[in-house]
């Protein structure tokens, strides 16, 4: 008997365990091993709630590496690897554990590093360090996987950690963006130019709409028409190499058409601005339509409701390519079509002020926007590209939608559908298969049928149009400010238990069965819709890449935060300094960790301006604008220096002073504290339980007259779910 025990111990100590030793220790192929283990009846399975093991990893800031930690029920040995999806090839190296751990490092064929205990020692955790390999791209997709040997005949196969992208979601990541990256700021003509009816400019839909609701702040705005050189000086003061601005259609074509005549003063104005930018080493990034379409065309045929606008927009685009294309190499056809279509043709919060109770007009308007985009892209492609060598893209905006419970497939589906109904509505025709997302087609067709309609409320693209739409972008601009949590419910209420208004029931009315909320820990700024959620940037990029397989150039074409009006103004805008530190670091992560071809960051916005229907009371600017002064004097806020440090250093190089500051302030910037000061007394007293529709609209606020209708309709819809 005694010799039997001794023999058993000998095998044990040698780590052989004969027939039941894990085969990868003997150098066989691991996938074969996994099969063998299972056929031998071992206890094995992927990481699940049943698994007694967990692999976790955290980033070691000081040494720029990951500490990986396998823990669980006691185990005897473990094979630990860093891997990419779809590959069993290990990436990088694990450092051996300290001598005292009693574990030894052994190498087992090509399968990577394995840490095994060759003595009869059981443990319930090991900690290892993974050195980040030099020059590895797309680190974000890597994850850690452990094959745990519990007993000689009891294994647990492939217990996984989250991916590095997930593990790095909230951490500061020192690093830089490539040379040539566009560091920029963005503005829009209506919000800054003023001179609404000067020098030949025609009336825009925003001029008309604002006047009709008694608002005249856009008439002079920040007077950039007059003082554009001052804008360029300020951009220079920010250390930027680019500027995104928009052209006012009616400054070029006063009645919206070429037949109505080209306004030379308008051409001169933009020529001067473009030349001034170029002289100062700044790349112009030009939007053709940032919401201020010609009022004459709205009066003539209902603007975006008529397909006549496709030709007129194309003519306008052609005039711009012809006049400025020798110097402008980045064209954006539309800024955030979802916002102006929904705002103007859905919820009456923007011109032309249509309250679309039938839920038809917004789809018609969007249809013509997409057609107009595709047409303008083809015009550039066919008539200008060869000579001008520029690019034409579009700027899309969507809040990021995260499933409230990632383990609930219904919530996951809801979050996906939200993206499809907001982003995909425009992205799928242009970056996807040329048509609307199938989910939209099916769901709107079904509800149209239920409503007794003979055809879907969603218009249909012809086969020819689908082909014409597809691939009509040389880059994508994404405006990314914030995120929402989406959850499935068949009883949506106006305000959820945390007090959050179910904004999506109004803004995404055909997506029924879901509700939105926010995580109460996300810091809130002045504009209640904007919760500070920096990781929305990477999530949205990742979603876009995966959904459209789009490997082209990405730009973050807008992001920013506002403060209320204060007297005297609060120039030490610590909230904005935090915000830009957090959000610029996201693009560094997207480039370094996720391998995204990201080419530019555009802060919204250069100076306090006319925030659409909110007028001059929402201050998004890096520079303060004194609206009481006829010259609209500007003063840099504290964030000018912060943004400048980041832009002139191309991000956060290791060891730079501002990198260390960002590192130090990182956790604090994720708390509510820095943002609280941005909020007005009035808003500060607002309890979370009483927000209204007015509080939730980005840039536009539904007029009180429409609110009751909106809420009433919402209730009716909910009852019909
Ligand atoms: C728009 C800007 C607006 C900003 C802040 C963006 O959606 O493009 O024009 O000022 O949001 O609301």
UniProtKB/TrEMBL annotation:
SUPFAM superfamilies: (Trans)glycosidases. GO terms for biological process: carbohydrate metabolic process. GO terms for molecular function: hydrolase activity, hydrolyzing O-glycosyl compounds. Residues 33-157 form the Reelin domain. This is Cytosolic beta-glucosidase-like. Residues 1-19 form the signal peptide. It comes from the Eukaryota.
């Amino acid at each position: 008997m005694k010799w039997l025990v001794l023999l058993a111990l000998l095998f044990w100590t040698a780590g052989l365990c004969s027939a039941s030793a894990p085969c990868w220790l003997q150098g066989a192929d691991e996938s074969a091993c996994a099969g063998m283990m299972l056929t031998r009846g071992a206890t094995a399975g992927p990481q699940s709630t049943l698994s007694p093991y967990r692999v976790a990893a955290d980033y070691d800031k000081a040494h720029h590496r990951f500490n990986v930690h396998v823990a669980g029920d006691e185990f005897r040995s473990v094979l630990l690897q860093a891997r990419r999806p779809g590959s069993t090839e290990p990436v990088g190296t694990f450092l051996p554990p300290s001598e005292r751990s009693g574990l030894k490092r052994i190498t087992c064929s090509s399968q990577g590093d394995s840490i095994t205990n060759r003595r009869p020692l059981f443990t319930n955790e090991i900690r290892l360090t993974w050195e980040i390999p030099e020059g590895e791209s797309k680190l974000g997709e890597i994850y850690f996987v452990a094959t745990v040997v519990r007993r000689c005949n009891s294994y647990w196969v492939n217990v996984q950690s989250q991916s590095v992208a997930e593990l790095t979601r909230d951490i500061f990541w020192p690093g830089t963006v490539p040379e040539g990256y566009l560091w920029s700021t963005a503005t829009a003509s209506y919000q800054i130019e003023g001179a609404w009816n000067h020098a030949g400019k025609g009336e825009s839909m925003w001029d008309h709409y604002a006047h009709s609701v008694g608002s005249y702040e856009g008439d002079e705005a920040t007077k950039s028409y007059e003082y554009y050189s001052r804008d360029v000086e300020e951009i220079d003061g920010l250390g930027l190499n680019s500027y995104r601005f928009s052209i006012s259609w009616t400054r070029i074509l006063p009645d919206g058409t070429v037949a109505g005549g080209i306004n030379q003063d308008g051409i001169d104005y933009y020529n001067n601005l473009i030349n001034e930018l170029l002289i100062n080493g700044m790349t112009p990034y030009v939007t053709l339509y940032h919401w201020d379409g010609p009022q004459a065309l709205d009066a003539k045929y209902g603007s975006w409701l008529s397909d006549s606008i496709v030709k007129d927009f194309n003519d306008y685009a052609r005039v711009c390519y012809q006049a400025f294309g020798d110097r402008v190499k980045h064209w954006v056809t539309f800024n955030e079509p979802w916002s102006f279509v929904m705002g103007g043709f859905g919820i009456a919060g923007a011109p032309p002020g249509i309250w679309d109770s039938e839920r038809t007009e917004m789809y018609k308007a969007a249809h013509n926007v997409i057609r107009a985009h595709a047409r303008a892209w083809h015009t550039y492609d066919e008539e200008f590209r060869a000579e001008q060598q520029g690019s034409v893209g579009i700027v899309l905006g969507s809040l990021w939608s995260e499933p409230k419970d990632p383990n609930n497939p219904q919530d996951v589906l809801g979050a996906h559908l939200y993206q499809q109904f907001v982003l995909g509505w425009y992205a799928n025709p242009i970056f996807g298969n040329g048509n609307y997302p199938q989910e939209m087609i099916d769901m709107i067709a079904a509800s149209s049928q239920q409503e007794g309609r003979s055809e879907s409320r969603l218009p249909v693209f012809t086969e020819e149009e689908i082909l014409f739409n597809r691939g009509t972008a040389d880059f994508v601009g994404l405006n990314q400010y914030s995120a929402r949590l989406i959850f499935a419910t068949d009883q949506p209420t106006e305000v959820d238990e945390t007090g959050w208004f179910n904004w999506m029931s109004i803004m995404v009315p055909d997506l029924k069965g879901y509700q939105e909320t926010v995580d109460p820990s996300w810091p809130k700024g002045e504009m209640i819709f904007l919760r500070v959620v920096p990781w929305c940037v990477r999530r949205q990029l990742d979603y876009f890449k995966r959904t459209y397989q789009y490997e082209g150039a990405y730009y973050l074409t807008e992001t920013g935060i506002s403060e209320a009006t204060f007297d005297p103004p609060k120039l030490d805008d610590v909230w904005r300094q935090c915000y830009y530190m957090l959000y610029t670091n996201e693009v560094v992560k997207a480039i370094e960790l996720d391998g995204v071809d990201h080419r530019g960051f555009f802060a919204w916005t250069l100076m306090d301006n006319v925030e659409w229907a909110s007028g001059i009371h929402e201050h998004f600017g890096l520079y303060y604008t004194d609206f009481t002064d006829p010259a609209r004097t500007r003063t840099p806020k504290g964030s000018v220096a912060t943004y400048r440090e980041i832009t002139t250093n191309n991000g956060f190089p290791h060891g730079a002073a501002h990198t260390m500051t960002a590192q130090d302030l990182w956790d604090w910037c994720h708390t509510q504290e820095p943002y609280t000061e941005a909020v007005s007394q009035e808003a500060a007293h607002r309890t979370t339980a009483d927000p209204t529709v007015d509080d939730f609209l980005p840039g536009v606020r539904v007029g009180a007259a429409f609110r009751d209708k909106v809420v009433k309709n919402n209730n009716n819809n909910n009852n019909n779910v």
